[in-house]
Protein backbone atom coordinates (compact mmCIF):
# COMPACT_ATOMS: atom_id res chain seq x y z
CA UNK A 1 0.00 0.00 0.00
CA UNK A 2 1.64 3.26 -1.10
CA UNK A 3 0.69 6.88 -0.53
CA UNK A 4 -2.28 8.19 -2.40
CA UNK A 5 -3.19 11.71 -3.31
CA UNK A 6 -6.67 12.86 -2.37
CA UNK A 7 -6.70 14.98 -5.50
CA UNK A 8 -6.39 12.08 -7.99
CA UNK A 9 -9.12 11.44 -10.54
CA UNK A 10 -11.90 9.01 -9.91
CA UNK A 11 -11.06 5.73 -11.60
CA UNK A 12 -12.67 2.68 -9.95
CA UNK A 13 -9.24 1.48 -8.92
CA UNK A 14 -8.46 4.69 -7.02
CA UNK A 15 -11.86 4.56 -5.47
CA UNK A 16 -10.99 1.15 -4.10
CA UNK A 17 -7.57 2.28 -2.88
CA UNK A 18 -9.10 5.28 -1.18
CA UNK A 19 -11.61 3.09 0.61
CA UNK A 20 -9.00 0.54 1.54
CA UNK A 21 -6.59 3.14 2.89
CA UNK A 22 -9.25 4.69 5.00
CA UNK A 23 -10.32 1.38 6.38
CA UNK A 24 -6.78 0.52 7.34
CA UNK A 25 -6.07 3.97 8.73
CA UNK A 26 -9.15 4.16 10.86
CA UNK A 27 -8.51 0.75 12.29
CA UNK A 28 -4.79 1.05 12.85
CA UNK A 29 -4.36 4.66 13.69
CA UNK A 30 -7.17 6.31 15.58
CA UNK A 31 -5.12 9.21 16.88
CA UNK A 32 -3.23 11.96 15.15
CA UNK A 33 0.14 10.91 16.52
CA UNK A 34 -0.22 7.33 15.40
CA UNK A 35 -1.32 8.48 12.01
CA UNK A 36 1.72 10.64 11.57
CA UNK A 37 3.95 7.78 12.56
CA UNK A 38 2.27 5.43 10.16
CA UNK A 39 4.71 5.16 7.28
CA UNK A 40 2.35 5.00 4.36
CA UNK A 41 0.50 8.15 5.38
CA UNK A 42 2.19 11.43 4.51
CA UNK A 43 1.14 14.61 6.37
CA UNK A 44 -1.23 16.00 3.75
CA UNK A 45 -2.85 12.60 3.31
CA UNK A 46 -3.12 12.34 7.06
CA UNK A 47 -4.91 15.67 7.31
CA UNK A 48 -7.19 14.66 4.50
CA UNK A 49 -8.00 11.35 6.16
CA UNK A 50 -8.79 13.07 9.44
CA UNK A 51 -11.11 15.47 7.63
CA UNK A 52 -12.75 12.63 5.80
CA UNK A 53 -13.12 10.66 8.99
CA UNK A 54 -14.78 13.64 10.63
CA UNK A 55 -17.11 14.09 7.67
CA UNK A 56 -18.06 10.45 7.71
CA UNK A 57 -18.74 10.42 11.41
CA UNK A 58 -20.91 13.49 11.13
CA UNK A 59 -22.87 11.80 8.42
CA UNK A 60 -23.34 8.87 10.79
CA UNK A 61 -21.85 6.26 8.50
CA UNK A 62 -21.41 3.38 10.89
CA UNK A 63 -18.56 1.27 9.57
CA UNK A 64 -15.48 1.35 7.45
CA UNK A 65 -17.28 -0.82 4.91
CA UNK A 66 -19.60 2.10 4.21
CA UNK A 67 -16.57 4.22 3.54
CA UNK A 68 -15.61 2.15 0.54
CA UNK A 69 -18.85 2.91 -1.22
CA UNK A 70 -19.04 6.54 -0.16
CA UNK A 71 -15.48 7.73 -0.15
CA UNK A 72 -15.55 9.40 -3.50
CA UNK A 73 -18.67 11.45 -2.99
CA UNK A 74 -17.45 12.49 0.40
CA UNK A 75 -14.20 13.49 -1.24
CA UNK A 76 -16.08 15.76 -3.58
CA UNK A 77 -18.15 17.39 -0.87
CA UNK A 78 -15.33 17.85 1.55
CA UNK A 79 -14.31 21.25 0.23
CA UNK A 80 -17.65 22.66 1.34
CA UNK A 81 -17.86 20.78 4.63
CA UNK A 82 -14.27 21.11 5.76
CA UNK A 83 -14.12 21.73 9.52
CA UNK A 84 -10.52 22.84 9.45
CA UNK A 85 -8.48 24.71 6.88
CA UNK A 86 -4.83 25.75 6.72
CA UNK A 87 -4.58 29.25 5.29
CA UNK A 88 -1.69 30.74 3.34
CA UNK A 89 -1.03 33.33 6.04
CA UNK A 90 0.16 30.73 8.62
CA UNK A 91 -3.19 30.48 10.28
CA UNK A 92 -5.88 27.84 10.54
CA UNK A 93 -9.63 28.30 10.44
CA UNK A 94 -12.01 26.03 12.32
CA UNK A 95 -15.60 25.82 11.19
CA UNK A 96 -18.37 24.19 13.18
CA UNK A 97 -21.40 22.65 11.42
CA UNK A 98 -23.57 25.23 13.24
CA UNK A 99 -21.74 28.02 11.40
CA UNK A 100 -19.53 29.26 14.23
CA UNK A 101 -15.86 29.68 13.36
CA UNK A 102 -12.47 30.51 14.84
CA UNK A 103 -9.15 31.54 13.36
CA UNK A 104 -5.82 30.80 14.99
CA UNK A 105 -2.41 32.16 13.97
CA UNK A 106 0.55 29.84 14.34
CA UNK A 107 2.37 32.91 15.69
CA UNK A 108 1.65 32.76 19.40
CA UNK A 109 -1.07 30.16 18.67
CA UNK A 110 -3.17 33.30 19.00
CA UNK A 111 -6.89 32.93 18.39
CA UNK A 112 -7.66 36.11 16.46
CA UNK A 113 -11.31 35.54 15.65
CA UNK A 114 -14.28 33.72 17.15
CA UNK A 115 -17.59 34.15 15.42
CA UNK A 116 -20.92 32.87 16.68
CA UNK A 117 -24.11 33.50 14.74
CA UNK A 118 -22.24 35.78 12.38
CA UNK A 119 -21.03 38.06 15.19
CA UNK A 120 -17.36 38.51 16.10
CA UNK A 121 -16.87 37.84 19.81
CA UNK A 122 -13.21 38.84 20.18
CA UNK A 123 -11.67 42.27 19.88
CA UNK A 124 -8.74 42.55 17.50
CA UNK A 125 -7.01 45.91 17.26
CA UNK A 126 -7.10 47.40 13.77
CA UNK A 127 -3.36 48.09 14.24
CA UNK A 128 -2.50 44.63 15.56
CA UNK A 129 0.64 43.15 14.01
CA UNK A 130 -0.20 39.75 12.55
CA UNK A 131 3.15 39.17 10.86
CA UNK A 132 5.09 37.77 13.79
CA UNK A 133 6.91 40.98 14.68
CA UNK A 134 4.99 41.70 17.90
CA UNK A 135 2.54 39.93 20.20
CA UNK A 136 -0.96 40.29 18.77
CA UNK A 137 -3.00 43.11 20.29
CA UNK A 138 -6.31 41.33 20.57
CA UNK A 139 -7.81 37.87 20.28
CA UNK A 140 -6.44 35.45 22.84
CA UNK A 141 -2.67 35.81 23.33
CA UNK A 142 -1.15 33.09 25.53
CA UNK A 143 0.75 34.21 28.59
CA UNK A 144 3.46 31.74 29.69
CA UNK A 145 5.64 31.15 31.69
CA UNK A 146 5.31 34.53 33.45
CA UNK A 147 2.46 36.99 33.87
CA UNK A 148 3.58 40.61 33.61
CA UNK A 149 7.25 41.25 34.31
CA UNK A 150 8.99 39.25 37.04
CA UNK A 151 11.38 41.40 39.04
CA UNK A 152 13.18 38.46 40.62
CA UNK A 153 13.48 34.69 40.34
CA UNK A 154 14.13 32.39 37.36
CA UNK A 155 11.71 34.22 35.03
CA UNK A 156 13.15 37.70 35.68
CA UNK A 157 15.07 37.81 32.40
CA UNK A 158 11.94 37.17 30.33
CA UNK A 159 9.96 39.95 28.68
CA UNK A 160 6.47 40.89 29.90
CA UNK A 161 4.04 37.93 29.63
CA UNK A 162 6.77 35.48 28.55
CA UNK A 163 7.51 33.92 25.17
CA UNK A 164 4.46 31.78 24.30
CA UNK A 165 2.65 34.68 22.62
CA UNK A 166 5.69 35.61 20.52
CA UNK A 167 6.80 32.13 19.40
CA UNK A 168 5.65 30.26 16.34
CA UNK A 169 3.81 27.10 17.32
CA UNK A 170 3.61 23.83 15.44
CA UNK A 171 0.30 22.65 14.13
CA UNK A 172 -0.17 19.16 15.55
CA UNK A 173 -3.48 18.40 13.84
CA UNK A 174 -7.08 17.68 14.57
CA UNK A 175 -8.11 16.07 17.83
CA UNK A 176 -11.01 13.85 17.04
CA UNK A 177 -12.69 12.55 20.17
CA UNK A 178 -15.90 14.53 20.45
CA UNK A 179 -18.55 14.83 17.76
CA UNK A 180 -19.90 18.16 19.04
CA UNK A 181 -16.73 20.17 18.66
CA UNK A 182 -14.02 20.81 16.11
CA UNK A 183 -10.68 20.69 17.90
CA UNK A 184 -7.19 21.55 16.73
CA UNK A 185 -3.94 21.17 18.65
CA UNK A 186 -0.75 23.20 18.60
CA UNK A 187 2.60 22.42 20.20
CA UNK A 188 5.51 24.42 21.54
CA UNK A 189 8.70 23.08 23.03
CA UNK A 190 12.21 24.27 23.71
CA UNK A 191 13.31 23.80 20.08
CA UNK A 192 10.51 26.13 18.88
CA UNK A 193 11.53 29.17 20.92
CA UNK A 194 14.37 31.46 19.96
CA UNK A 195 17.83 31.11 21.43
CA UNK A 196 17.47 34.23 23.53
CA UNK A 197 14.32 32.89 25.20
CA UNK A 198 16.06 29.54 25.71
CA UNK A 199 18.82 31.35 27.58
CA UNK A 200 16.38 33.51 29.53
CA UNK A 201 14.37 30.49 30.69
CA UNK A 202 16.52 27.37 30.39
CA UNK A 203 13.98 24.65 31.14
CA UNK A 204 12.82 21.62 29.19
CA UNK A 205 9.13 22.16 28.70
CA UNK A 206 6.46 21.00 26.28
CA UNK A 207 3.13 22.73 25.71
CA UNK A 208 0.11 21.28 23.95
CA UNK A 209 -2.60 23.82 23.28
CA UNK A 210 -6.04 22.64 22.23
CA UNK A 211 -8.62 24.97 20.70
CA UNK A 212 -12.10 23.45 20.63
CA UNK A 213 -14.91 25.15 18.79
CA UNK A 214 -18.50 24.29 19.66
CA UNK A 215 -21.80 25.76 18.57
CA UNK A 216 -21.54 28.70 20.97
CA UNK A 217 -18.37 27.88 22.89
CA UNK A 218 -14.65 28.20 22.50
CA UNK A 219 -12.54 26.08 24.82
CA UNK A 220 -8.83 26.71 25.29
CA UNK A 221 -6.83 24.03 27.06
CA UNK A 222 -3.15 24.12 27.90
CA UNK A 223 -1.20 21.05 28.88
CA UNK A 224 2.22 21.86 30.27
CA UNK A 225 4.85 19.15 30.61
CA UNK A 226 8.15 19.26 32.38
CA UNK A 227 10.27 17.05 30.18
CA UNK A 228 13.42 17.36 32.18
CA UNK A 229 15.03 14.52 34.03
CA UNK A 230 16.71 16.90 36.43
CA UNK A 231 15.06 20.24 37.09
CA UNK A 232 11.67 21.37 38.40
CA UNK A 233 10.35 24.69 37.12
CA UNK A 234 7.84 27.35 38.20
CA UNK A 235 5.33 28.82 35.79
CA UNK A 236 2.34 31.11 35.48
CA UNK A 237 -0.24 30.75 32.73
CA UNK A 238 -3.05 32.94 31.45
CA UNK A 239 -5.47 33.13 28.53
CA UNK A 240 -5.41 36.86 27.77
CA UNK A 241 -8.87 37.06 26.15
CA UNK A 242 -9.87 40.36 24.57
CA UNK A 243 -13.67 40.18 24.51
CA UNK A 244 -15.51 42.43 22.06
CA UNK A 245 -18.18 44.72 23.52
CA UNK A 246 -20.32 47.51 22.09
CA UNK A 247 -19.28 50.15 24.62
CA UNK A 248 -17.25 49.36 27.72
CA UNK A 249 -19.15 52.05 29.65
CA UNK A 250 -22.19 49.77 29.50
CA UNK A 251 -20.23 46.78 30.75
CA UNK A 252 -20.32 45.09 34.14
CA UNK A 253 -18.50 41.99 35.26
CA UNK A 254 -20.24 39.54 37.53
CA UNK A 255 -18.84 36.66 39.56
CA UNK A 256 -16.05 38.46 41.42
CA UNK A 257 -18.10 39.63 44.40
CA UNK A 258 -16.24 39.73 47.73
CA UNK A 259 -13.02 38.59 46.06
CA UNK A 260 -9.68 40.18 46.99
CA UNK A 261 -7.85 41.80 44.14
CA UNK A 262 -4.51 43.46 43.50
CA UNK A 263 -5.12 46.77 41.82
CA UNK A 264 -2.26 47.38 39.41
CA UNK A 265 -3.45 50.94 38.81
CA UNK A 266 -2.70 51.58 42.52
CA UNK A 267 0.69 49.88 42.67
CA UNK A 268 -0.74 46.45 43.51
CA UNK A 269 -2.77 47.63 46.52
CA UNK A 270 -4.97 44.80 47.81
CA UNK A 271 -8.67 45.66 47.88
CA UNK A 272 -11.85 43.64 48.07
CA UNK A 273 -14.64 43.66 45.52
CA UNK A 274 -17.97 44.74 46.94
CA UNK A 275 -20.47 42.22 48.21
CA UNK A 276 -23.64 41.01 46.55
CA UNK A 277 -25.66 44.19 47.06
CA UNK A 278 -23.24 46.25 44.96
CA UNK A 279 -22.23 43.09 43.25
CA UNK A 280 -20.86 44.00 39.88
CA UNK A 281 -17.64 45.52 38.73
CA UNK A 282 -18.39 48.59 36.60
CA UNK A 283 -15.75 49.69 34.12
CA UNK A 284 -15.56 53.49 34.41
CA UNK A 285 -11.83 54.19 34.21
CA UNK A 286 -8.53 52.38 33.59
CA UNK A 287 -8.99 48.95 35.14
CA UNK A 288 -6.17 46.49 35.75
CA UNK A 289 -6.99 44.03 38.51
CA UNK A 290 -5.84 40.59 39.48
CA UNK A 291 -8.65 38.81 41.32
CA UNK A 292 -7.04 36.17 43.49
CA UNK A 293 -8.66 32.74 43.50
CA UNK A 294 -12.40 33.51 43.36
CA UNK A 295 -14.32 30.58 44.84
CA UNK A 296 -16.71 30.43 41.86
CA UNK A 297 -15.39 29.24 38.53
CA UNK A 298 -17.46 31.46 36.27
CA UNK A 299 -17.25 35.18 35.41
CA UNK A 300 -19.90 36.84 33.25
CA UNK A 301 -19.68 39.98 31.15
CA UNK A 302 -22.93 41.95 30.93
CA UNK A 303 -23.78 44.80 28.60
CA UNK A 304 -26.75 46.97 29.51
CA UNK A 305 -27.68 44.30 32.06
CA UNK A 306 -27.70 41.52 29.50
CA UNK A 307 -25.27 38.62 29.87
CA UNK A 308 -23.09 38.58 26.77
CA UNK A 309 -20.33 36.09 27.43
CA UNK A 310 -19.32 33.77 30.24
CA UNK A 311 -15.74 32.82 31.06
CA UNK A 312 -15.49 29.48 32.84
CA UNK A 313 -12.30 28.25 34.48
CA UNK A 314 -11.10 24.71 34.92
CA UNK A 315 -8.03 24.29 37.13
CA UNK A 316 -7.28 27.99 36.70
CA UNK A 317 -7.40 29.90 39.97
CA UNK A 318 -7.37 33.58 39.09
CA UNK A 319 -9.07 36.20 36.93
CA UNK A 320 -7.53 39.37 35.51
CA UNK A 321 -9.78 42.19 34.34
CA UNK A 322 -8.15 44.81 32.13
CA UNK A 323 -9.29 47.82 30.17
CA UNK A 324 -6.61 50.46 29.43
CA UNK A 325 -9.15 53.28 29.00
CA UNK A 326 -8.36 56.28 26.85
CA UNK A 327 -4.76 57.37 27.53
CA UNK A 328 -2.61 54.24 27.70
CA UNK A 329 -3.48 52.98 24.18
CA UNK A 330 -2.06 56.21 22.72
CA UNK A 331 1.43 55.05 23.74
CA UNK A 332 1.03 51.44 22.67
CA UNK A 333 1.48 51.92 18.94
CA UNK A 334 -0.68 48.92 18.02
CA UNK A 335 -4.02 49.84 19.55
CA UNK A 336 -6.69 50.93 17.09
CA UNK A 337 -8.97 52.44 16.13
CA UNK A 338 -8.59 55.50 18.35
CA UNK A 339 -11.63 54.59 20.41
CA UNK A 340 -10.84 50.84 20.25
CA UNK A 341 -10.45 50.76 24.04
CA UNK A 342 -14.22 51.28 24.28
CA UNK A 343 -14.87 48.14 22.24
CA UNK A 344 -13.07 45.64 24.45
CA UNK A 345 -12.70 44.19 27.88
CA UNK A 346 -10.12 41.61 28.82
CA UNK A 347 -11.37 38.96 31.22
CA UNK A 348 -8.40 36.69 31.56
CA UNK A 349 -8.52 33.25 33.15
CA UNK A 350 -5.23 32.08 34.58
CA UNK A 351 -3.06 30.94 37.44
CA UNK A 352 -0.92 33.98 38.04
CA UNK A 353 -1.16 35.18 41.64
CA UNK A 354 1.33 32.51 42.71
CA UNK A 355 3.89 30.36 40.94
CA UNK A 356 2.96 26.83 40.06
CA UNK A 357 5.75 24.34 40.56
CA UNK A 358 6.01 21.57 37.98
CA UNK A 359 8.23 18.72 39.04
CA UNK A 360 10.41 16.91 36.55
CA UNK A 361 8.40 14.48 34.44
CA UNK A 362 5.05 15.92 35.62
CA UNK A 363 2.35 17.64 33.62
CA UNK A 364 -0.40 20.14 34.38
CA UNK A 365 -3.59 20.96 32.48
CA UNK A 366 -5.95 23.95 32.73
CA UNK A 367 -8.75 25.28 30.53
CA UNK A 368 -11.05 28.18 29.97
CA UNK A 369 -14.39 27.96 28.21
CA UNK A 370 -15.84 31.07 26.59
CA UNK A 371 -19.57 30.77 26.11
CA UNK A 372 -21.49 33.24 23.93
CA UNK A 373 -24.76 34.05 25.66
CA UNK A 374 -26.29 36.56 23.30
O1 LIG B 1 0.73 45.38 26.50
P1 LIG B 1 0.76 43.96 26.94
O2 LIG B 1 2.13 43.46 27.27
O3 LIG B 1 0.09 43.06 25.96
O4 LIG B 1 -0.08 43.85 28.28
C1 LIG B 1 -1.37 44.30 28.32
C2 LIG B 1 -1.95 44.20 29.75
O5 LIG B 1 -2.11 42.84 30.06
C3 LIG B 1 -2.85 42.64 31.28
O6 LIG B 1 -3.03 41.28 31.48
C4 LIG B 1 -2.06 43.24 32.41
O7 LIG B 1 -2.77 43.08 33.62
C5 LIG B 1 -1.80 44.70 32.13
O8 LIG B 1 -1.01 45.24 33.17
C6 LIG B 1 -1.12 44.87 30.79
O9 LIG B 1 -0.97 46.25 30.53
Strand order of the largest sheet: 7-8-9-10-22-19-18-13-16
Average pLDDT: 81
This entry's quaternary arrangement is: single chain
Q: Could you give the distance between the termini? A: 51 Å
Taken together, the total number of domains comes to 2
Order of helices and strands: HHHHEEEEEEEEHEEEEEEEEEEEEEE
GO cellular component, one term: cytoplasm
EC number: 5.1.3.15
Catalytic activity: alpha-D-glucose 6-phosphate = beta-D-glucose 6-phosphate
Protein name: glucose-6-phosphate 1-epimerase
Short description:
The protein is of the alpha+beta class. Helices cover 17% and strands 35% of the residues. It is globular.
Task: Provide key terms for this protein.
5 helices, 2 domains, Beta-galactosidase, Chain A, domain 5, binds 6-O-phosphono-beta-D-glucopyranose, GH-type_carb-bd, disordered N terminus, nine-stranded antiparallel beta sheet, globular, 374 residues, eight-stranded antiparallel beta sheet, alpha+beta
Amino acid sequence: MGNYSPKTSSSPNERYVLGQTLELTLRLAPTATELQENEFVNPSTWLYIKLLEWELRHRHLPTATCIRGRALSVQQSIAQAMPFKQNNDDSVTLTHPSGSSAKVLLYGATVISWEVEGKERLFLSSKAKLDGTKAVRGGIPLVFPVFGKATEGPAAALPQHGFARTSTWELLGIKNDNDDVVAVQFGLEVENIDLEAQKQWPYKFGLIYTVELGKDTLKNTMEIRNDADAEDFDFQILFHSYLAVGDVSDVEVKGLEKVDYRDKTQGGKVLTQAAESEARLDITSETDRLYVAPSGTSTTVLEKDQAVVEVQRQNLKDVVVWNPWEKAPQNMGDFGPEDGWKRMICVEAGSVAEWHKLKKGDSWTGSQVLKALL
